């Protein structure tokens, strides 16, 4: 049985993001399209894509670029340290950034690659997230028709599949917890809001296929659970992310994924 889930390339973690405050995101987006990717995951923390950097005209331009390149949008990444959401000195800024990312995802909904046209904002939330903050996030996501995928593990999102805050699966985080990603997906009450493709070895994050992840078992488990969105290829922490993206996409296409 071959995996039938297509890949989305996340541009989070590509070189150069930390070295400059003024970044034009277009080369990264065009690079992903040039690989032959059908879907992309944007980095909501990247200058030039950060919601506070984009007025209405800039959001239209971003949408036009994705349409011209024929890239579907799987969602946005926002990797704020989870502790910031519970730190009184940082919580307001973290919550505002997440709500703004939700609003941007909502503005880009026509490009969404997920079933029903609901884009996803991927984030890691703390175990001690205040209930009033959770309700604020639920309200913002529900208003915009956007899903928030909490990639913290063990999974802490609510069991209600209709909730805008759902479970995000990061295989590297699951493996780090000493668990098997395919088995953990099988225990979920419903399909996750988002699922990533990444791998882990004793040395740390490695390209998919070079660590402990059984890709076929993992993707089959997602399909059986009813997941229909793209798998988001996570390049964070890899020494040669561009090469990894090219190699994985070529191999994935050869497997027939997304055909």
For the structure shown, list the relevant keywords:
eight-stranded parallel β-barrel; 16% strand
Explain how this protein is built.
Residues 17-21 have low confidence and may be disordered. It contains 8 helices and 10 strands. With 259 residues, the protein is an alpha/beta fold. The chain has one domain (7-255): Divalent-metal-dependent TIM barrel enzymes (TIM Barrel). The chain has helices at residues 26-34, 56-68, 91-107, 131-144, 171-176, 181-187, 215-225, 241-255; strands at residues 7-10, 39-43, 72-77, 120-123, 147-150, 165-169, 194-197, 199-201, 204-206, 231-233.
Quick gist of this model?
By secondary structure, this protein is of the alpha/beta class.
In the CATH hierarchy, the architecture is: Alpha-Beta Barrel
Distance, first to last CA = 14 Å
How many helices? The count is 8
Mean pLDDT, all residues: 89
The proportion of strand residues reads 15-25%
**Number of DSSP strands?**
10
> In which range does the helix fraction lie?
25-40%
Cα-atom Rg, whole angstroms? 17 Å
CATH class assignment: Alpha Beta
Helix/strand/pairing class, anyone?
alpha/beta
* Largest sheet descriptor: 8 strands, parallel, barrel
The shape, in one word, is globular
What string gives the helices and strands in order? EHEHEHEHEEHHEEEHEH
Q: And the CATH topology?
A: TIM Barrel
- The CATH superfamily is Divalent-metal-dependent TIM barrel enzymes
Query: Any low-confidence stretches, pLDDT <50, length ≥5?
Result: 17-21
Question: Strands of the largest sheet, in order across it?
Answer: 1-2-3-4-5-6-7-10
Number of domain units:
1
């Amino acid at each position: 049985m071959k995996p039938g889930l297509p890949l989305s390339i996340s541009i989070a973690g590509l070189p150069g993001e930390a070295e400059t405050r003024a970044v034009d995101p277009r080369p990264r987006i065009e690079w992903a399209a040039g690989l032959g990717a059908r879907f992309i995951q944007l980095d909501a923390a990247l200058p030039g894509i950060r919601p506070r950097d984009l007025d209405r005209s800039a959001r239209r331009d971003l949408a036009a670029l994705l349409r011209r390149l024929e890239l579907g949008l799987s969602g946005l990444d926002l990797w704020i340290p989870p502790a910031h959401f519970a730190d009184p000195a940082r919580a307001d800024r973290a919550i505002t950034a997440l709500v703004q990312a939700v609003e941007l995802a909502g503005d880009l909904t026509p490009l969404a690659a997920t079933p029903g046209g609901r884009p996803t904002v991927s984030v890691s939330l703390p175990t001690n997230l205040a209930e009033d903050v959770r309700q604020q996030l639920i309200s913002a996501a529900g208003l915009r028709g956007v899903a928030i995928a909490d990639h913290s593990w063990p999974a802490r999102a609510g069991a209600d599949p209709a909730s805008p805050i759902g479970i995000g699966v990061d295989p590297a985080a699951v493996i780090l917890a000493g668990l098997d990603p395919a088995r953990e997906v099988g225990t979920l009450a419903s399909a996750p809001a988002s699922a990533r493709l990444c791998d882990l070895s004793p040395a740390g994050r490695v390209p998919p296929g070079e660590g402990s992840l059984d890709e076929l078992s993992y993707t089959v488990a997602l399909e059986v659970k009813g997941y229909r969105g793209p798998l988001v290829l996570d390049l964070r922490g890899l020494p040669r992310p561009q090469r990894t993206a090219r190699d994985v996409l070529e191999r994935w296409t050869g497997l027939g994924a997304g055909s």
